[in-house]
Amino acid sequence: MQEAPTATHEKTKTQEVSLFMFLAAGLIPALTIALVGAYGFSIWMYQIFISGPPTQ
């Protein structure tokens, strides 16, 4: 026998949906952009200080 959903259950579900939306639309894209930017910056600094520009 299932119990009827309570106000606490609805609040928890609302929080879960809000957290998912924050992660899916906010945090994960921001972290992805930051990581790709940091990788590009590290390669740029490596080329400036260590290996120099690409040559043929």
How would you describe this structure to a colleague?
By secondary structure, the protein is an all-alpha fold. The chain is built from 1 helix and no strands. It is rod-shaped and about 70 Å long. The relative contact order is 0.07. The model has no long low-confidence stretch (mean pLDDT 88).
- Please give the largest β-sheet: none
Q: Structural class from helices and strands?
A: mainly alpha
Beta fraction: under 5%
* Number of helices, counting only DSSP H or I runs of 4 residues or more: 1
What overall geometry do the principal axes of the alpha carbons give?
rod-shaped
Mean pLDDT: 88
Which stretches of 5+ consecutive residues score pLDDT under 50? none
Order of helices and strands: H
Topology, number of strands: 0
What percentage of residues falls in helices of 4 or more residues?
Answer: over 70%
Distance between the termini: 74 Å
As a whole number of angstroms, the C-alpha radius of gyration is 23 Å
Descriptive tags:
single chain; 56 residues; mainly alpha; 1 helix; rod-shaped
Blueprint (SSEs and pairs):
Elements: H1 7-51
Condensed summary:
By secondary structure, the chain is mainly α. It contains one helix and no strands.
